[in-house]
Write a structure and sequence with these properties.
The structure is a homodimer. In chain A, the strands form six sheets. In chain A, strands 2-1-10-9-11-12-13-14-15 form a nine-stranded mixed β-sheet, sandwiched between helices. With about 475 residues, chain A is α/β, with parallel strands linked by helices. In chain A, helix 1 crosses helix 2, helix 2 crosses helix 3 and helix 7 packs across helix 9. Chain A has a domain of about 45 residues: ANL, C-terminal domain (GMP Synthetase, Chain A, domain 3), CATH 3.30.300.30. Chain A is built from 15 helices and 23 strands. Chains A and B meet through helix 1, helix 7 and strand 15 of A and helix 1, helix 7 and strand 15 of B.
Amino acid sequence: MEQKVYRTELTPLSFLERSALIFPDKTAVIHGERSYTYQEMAERVYRLASRLRALGLQKHERVAFLCPNTPALLEAHYAIPAAGGILVAINNRLSSPEIGFILQHSGSKYLFVDHEFFPLIEALNLEQLTQIIRIDDSGAPEDPYEQFLAAGTPEPVKSWLEDEEETISINYTSGTTGNPKGVMYTYRGAYLNALSEVIESGLNSSSIYLWTLPMFHCNGWCFTWGVTAVGATHVCLRKVDPSHIWELFESEKITHYNGAPTVHIFLAHHPKAHRLEQQITVTIAGAPPSPTLLAQLKQLNMRPIHVYGLTETYGPYTVCEWHEEWASLPQEEQARLLARQGQGYVTAERARVVDPNMQDVAWDGATMGEVIMRGNNVAKGYYENPEATARSFEGGWFHSGDIGVWHADSYIELRDRAKDVIISGGENISTIEVEQTLVQHPAVLECAVVAIPDETWGNAPRHL
Amino acid sequence: MEQKVYRTELTPLSFLERSALIFPDKTAVIHGERSYTYQEMAERVYRLASRLRALGLQKHERVAFLCPNTPALLEAHYAIPAAGGILVAINNRLSSPEIGFILQHSGSKYLFVDHEFFPLIEALNLEQLTQIIRIDDSGAPEDPYEQFLAAGTPEPVKSWLEDEEETISINYTSGTTGNPKGVMYTYRGAYLNALSEVIESGLNSSSIYLWTLPMFHCNGWCFTWGVTAVGATHVCLRKVDPSHIWELFESEKITHYNGAPTVHIFLAHHPKAHRLEQQITVTIAGAPPSPTLLAQLKQLNMRPIHVYGLTETYGPYTVCEWHEEWASLPQEEQARLLARQGQGYVTAERARVVDPNMQDVAWDGATMGEVIMRGNNVAKGYYENPEATARSFEGGWFHSGDIGVWHADSYIELRDRAKDVIISGGENISTIEVEQTLVQHPAVLECAVVAIPDETWGNAPRHL
């Protein structure tokens, strides 16, 4: 491949190389009593990569990880691409058969498993695997994962990357029907999305990021790479335990964490909840934050950012950018505005809401349509699944399956998953709209609205 | 060209499109009594672009601007690429013959000239130009520039961009000998550098950026695009008048400005200088800040960032990233550390200091070598000047002509321009090293050391 003086292939590995160069002694990772500097993190990554190469890993060979948010899984986000492989970070909440399907479908040759999840794979037929490496997450020399690293070498591994559009990872996502689909991310997409997250969350070298969001979920929305890009500190977390998290907020002086509203609700209602000295930027996705939750977060000195995306969009694709003039509006109005999904990130194209002919719906906040997206924040397709790829990426756009409206100010707002719309008396009822109305009541924390068969109406909404 | 669902060509035009979409009513540009919202800025840009298209502008045709930091020159940074042309922003401090050379060499067909600089072109033979448009910078309907815009249309112009490696601008740079060379920037480079500046300077939608740095200089280090990327506000400035700038710091609540140490020194020593309520992030390039200046800036509530680069690197390429532990060191030691040029930006490759065989010099802070750079922060070459391109970009790296050392902590530090090294008694003397020693004296504000012929030593240093 021609080497141009003015071009470097975009790869998030450069973020680790740079932070290890500039901040070698700075704390890169904290995990309980253990911590690693950027120099140490880089050396561990190169050990893992060089060991895999020595074992015969081929370019683009898949390497699977089944872990909670530990240093090992973070290291994998650099070591597997550094070795030239493709990372498959498996959702640890899946059942054994689903995990078996993913291992087989991805054709993974290596599997790294945290000790906690070892029972999940014991009953599986794993003949296709060359090696299974157990991670005790102890950091001690007898930990099989540490022994694996010890057999590698700490020097940088020569890159095999030729084109930034090569696949860096495959993230399996489960629909309601059928087998999980493997969403392919590119080096270019991972790089640009990581920078976007840095900009949207305001990460810098003083930031301390707490890993409440699973790293297996869209590669942790690319924060696995973004936090490293600015030389900030990753605080790992085996599980979301609100009491422990409140301790970490203070002991580690956390500045950022991400999660679904449920995570934030658990935290806001914990007995240890109190106003923090430092401000924490909290990014919320998965469902719109309720007015009650937003008010609570502010009281705790948390700055909420509401984003929206899917596995096929590297995690967040849109953000509800805050307008300074909203601050003077009544709380409920602020919450209503912030509950919208907003518009594309700085590296994303405009998100559109379209009718079945892929024409934009009216920007009237009422006409429903499907949300579609394309460009650098959209994945390459589904691994070895051309039918599903053709269907979901038809017409050059990714079809989210999410139903929303387009407001006059360009912001989009979700109304439902296509399959969740309740058809009652022939009329479409948005479950999200009913939910958003219910959560405005201060006595309601969270709610979910589903369709119940009804003799008169066909379906009728019920809240749980 | 194949349209991939997961790829959008990187272009900084997307930043304006996005900010006009998300922040239509937010102030994009302030210029004295005038101001434009993002919606207005976008419409003015499309008017300029559509008018040029209507006049027959061809793809990649050059369009020259000779202006101070006015809205017109900022608009040009979007309108010329939007039209499919290539922007040539000319240094307004050049002489008439130099400007004539640039117009001719670039083959510009259109020239936009601010009224203040009209005398500079009056004596030139401008036969090759299709049209000269005078900018009165009044914003009034009778301003010829405003009339030009009025003849255009405010709707988005269909993009002709096919490849992000196309040239977006040509920035002419003068060496000490020979004619100016036209440094070609790509859409990809402009985009990535703009994002880097956002991250390094910590720009966000609340930022108010003051245009002390000339926009003709490396396209304003890509801040022309970066400030827009986050929906921040540009405050234009016809000239660097310290008294006026101190007024703007307060009246416009400025949060960021950039410049050479001289600009900062003028400001720090002005009678109006006083500690500001808001913190201003000031990015310093062109020469290392002295300990005296750094101390003064801190007292004024300014946060200094020291960067280094050249026209061939889109402006800044390296940054002296701050280490928190430095804050506990004595002031002189902090200043000594911050006077170093540091290492590559987040989107840049490692800057190297090499011997004449392009081998890395020892990381000993003493061995001198040439600073070389490559990758996405390096320009494409010199326009229609293959000899100079071959020379400066030899071996796949851009040769800066700057002489520096490489410290053990990976940071580089400049010692001299290759041509400025003083050879006295057969020994190399770094003018910068002598200068840095002199400015440590609190009575010395600025100094420059040059070689003077000497009977005994050949050359000897003198400070001015």
